Amino acid sequence: MGIVVLTMKASVIEMFLVLLATGIHSNKDMTKKIKRPKLTVPQINCDVKAGKIINPEFVVKCPAGCQDPKYHVYGTDIYASYSSVCGAAIHSGVLDNSGGKILVRKVAGQSGYKGSYSNGVQSLSLPRWRESFIVSEGKPQRGVTYPSALTYSSSKSPAAKTDEATKAYQKPPVPGTTAQPVTLTQVTGATATGAAHASLPKPSPSAGSTSSSLRPQPVGLRSGELDLWATSTYTSGQNSPHADPGEMDLWKPGSVLLDAGFVPKEELSTRALEPLSQGDPNCKIDLSFVIDGSSSIGKRRFRIQKQFLADVAQALDIGPAGPLMGIVQYGDNPSAQFNLRTHMNSRDLRTAIEKITQRGGLSNAGRAISFVTKNFFSKANGNRGSAPNVAVVIVDGWPTDKVEEASRFARESGINIFFITVEGATENEKQYVVEPNFSHKAVCRTNGFYSLNVQSWFSLHKTVQALVKRVCDTDRLACSKTCLNSADIGFVIDGSSSVGTGNFRTVLQFVANLSKEFEISDIDTRIGAVQYTYEQRLEFGFDDYNTKSDILNAIKRVGYWSGGTSTGAAINYALEQLFKKSKPNKRKLMILITDGRSYDDVRIPAMVAHHKGVITYAIGVAWAAQDELEVIEITDNSTSDPRTTHLAKEKHC
After folding, report:
1. CB count in 10 Å sphere of residue 613
2. Which residues of the chain are under the pLDDT cut of 70?
3. Cα–Cα distance between 122 and 128 in angstroms, integer?
4. DSSP labels for 222-258?
């Protein structure tokens, strides 16, 4: 009996343990069932635009490599929804080129979007757009639920694979559904040239709901021109098990049709063409980069130089309404790689820069500057005339020829020369430099604005923003005015007794006030002065003073002479003692101030002056003889006003 009881107790205990174990296991299963799944962050491609995503606020993950300029961005801080989401995130500084999670929030459209260069991405300007978005770090906010799957304006996710869509296209239609015709338009190049009609079966619901396709670009289109992707529409059949009456679905056919160049007519008629930048109007310059292709630079540094050019081209926002850029490469001799009108946007320019090959040879920068002055900035090469001419010269170490004379001619032709010296000569190497202080002799002005010294080629990229800011500061491009300002002006002042001390001081004040209006320097305007009575004397020549303050002080020191009036002899004296030292490429202006009739003949000296290319202006005060003033101002064999000749020269300049 006792044995039976013990057996029963053992059975009960065993059942209890089984039930206990079963309950624990069941409890674990229930715990697993009620545990909330972790939020899945959807991943998008670099080319996905915010306008293609319907969700008003979402967290996404961007892949690496979205800094590429082919992923266009429009705006700064607030971006047009036509922008690449990931590209905008890099531009704003939320991400770098390695990718990561971001939070995107849609906002209202803006009346305008301003382009800028930031974090390696050049955003473009846009007049207006219907919708905008902002990006921030991908940290979800408390109390906000973010979608684990994005809703696109088409039924296909842009992150899926093309072959899945192709398989879906090849599957037969679901029984009970009616296939509707889809209209496709074939695109060749940048324009639609024809249309084809085909009846395509609707993919099965299972395939259509889970598959998506990458949209390959149609054959014949360059990236960024039309950006037309194949998307077609069809109406769900009324017998379809999952279709609502009248509901419009979007479906993309397989990649085979896309690669053949077909684009649905629906897409062509409704999708806005991608706006092309016309360039930054605040930086309207004609720019020549003069790059070092000598053997000493080496292949690696030459590639760094090309990358620098590409970065500058991207930052400048090249376009017909903004800056235009061409490149000259020099070694033993210079050669134009392409001119101002060859590439009219930053994208094409960057592609062309990548194809430049190194010339080799010496580093004859002076010869290159002379080439740019004589050949590059011409109307045939795209020079617009209304835009400042800028030349940025890059040299590795130091030039192997002299740059001073070539640079002087360039400056006096109105070209603003910037000089970038990379890895310049050390103290021990300066003995090998052909021309000491070559940079100061080359630049437009020696005030530091036009010179950049870079310690290493590997630091060159750090100067992109500084250079772009300087070349676009058109108000400070002083040499743009040099062409009109580049003149030697000689004042021939009557110091006869009839003038008097008080009036003579008044004349000197007039000369000083007129001199203030010019940019005084060796490459701009130079001032000289002659005083005359019966005799003549040189008060100061063109080479004596090169600053405005020195000129004004020299004018103040001129003493009143007193005597007779021999104007003809004074003109001859000025031609021999003053204008004989004038530079051949400067305009020569003689301004004669007198108060009476000359005791000698003025006609022949005036004709000699005109034959020598000196433009004469006669200013008569008080008892000055009008007929003599007219003779002094006439041109040889012409009755035209010499001021007309002067203005014509300015216009030609």
Report:
1. 11
2. 1-39, 127, 154-276, 481-485, 585, 634-653
3. 18
4. -TTTS-----EEEEPPTT-TTPPTT-EEEE---HHHH
Alpha-carbon span 495 to 498, nearest angstrom = 8
Do the beta carbons of residue 42 and residue 150 sit within 8 Å? Answer: yes
**Which is it for strands 100-108 and 248-251: parallel, antiparallel or unpaired?**
unpaired
Q: In which order are the strands placed within the sheet that holds 181-188?
A: 191-199, 181-188, 262-264
Dist CA 611 CA 631 (whole Å): 14
Cα distance between residue 519 and residue 368, in whole Å: 27
Taking every pair of Cα atoms in the chain, the longest distance, rounded to a whole number of angstroms, is 165
d(CA 607, CA 626): 17
Residue 246: the pLDDT is: 36
How many C-beta atoms lie closer than 10 Å to residue 465's C-beta?
14
387, two tokens: 């835009």
Give the number of other CB atoms < 10 A from CB of residue 235: 16
| Number of helices and strands in the chain (H, E) | 19, 23
- Return d(Cα 185, Cα 196) in angstroms, integer: 6
Q: Which residues neighbour 89 within 8 Å (Cβ) at sequence distance 6 or greater?
A: 62, 66, 95, 102, 135
- Cβ-in-10-Å burial (0-12, 13-18, 19+) of 652 comes to exposed
Helical (H) or strand (E) element with 108: strand 100-108
* Residues forming beta bridges with residue 195, ordered by sequence position: 185
Prediction pTM value: 0.46
